[in-house]
Write a structure and sequence with these properties.
The chain is an all-alpha fold and 122 residues long. The chain has helices spanning 3-7, 9-13, 20-44, 48-68, 73-87, 102-105, 108-120.
Length: 122
């Protein structure tokens, strides 16, 4: 076990669950990071749904960073981004993207009724 890892908070738990907790924390951290990067495009376009999703994911990321390691820099950076997003929350007011199926079938509800009626004819 690495000395830096032994001193972390996770090091205390790994005595009970060796390898499981650290792998889970790393996987959760990776998934949260990828999701935030994917939502960055929506934030750039000032989408309210992307803002809401990031406001859920970043505090979770802070929690994982604080529990997983003693390096609070990433947690502080995430908190700073959350504060900036909250301050500028009124800027995220762009409308949602249109339904891609609406242009082909009229509306998405008509598409659903079309598929259910055609499925019954088979």
């Amino acid at each position: 076990m690495l000395p830096a890892f032994r001193r972390s908070r996770v090091g205390e738990i790994t005595g009970l669950l060796p390898g499981t907790f650290t792998s889970l924390a790393q996987a959760v951290s990776l998934v949260l990071g990828v999701l935030v990067v994917m939502l960055a495009h929506g934030l750039r376009r000032r989408k309210r749904r992307a803002w809401r999703a990031v406001m859920v994911l970043l505090p979770l990321s802070v929690l994982v960073d604080l529990l997983h390691s003693h390096r609070p820099f990433t947690a502080v950076l995430s908190v700073l981004v959350v504060v900036l997003l909250v301050i500028n929350r009124n800027e995220f007011n762009a409308l949602s993207d249109p339904d891609p199926l609406a242009g082909r079938c009229g509306t998405s509800s008509s598409w659903a009724s079309w598929t259910s009626s055609s499925a019954g004819s088979w």
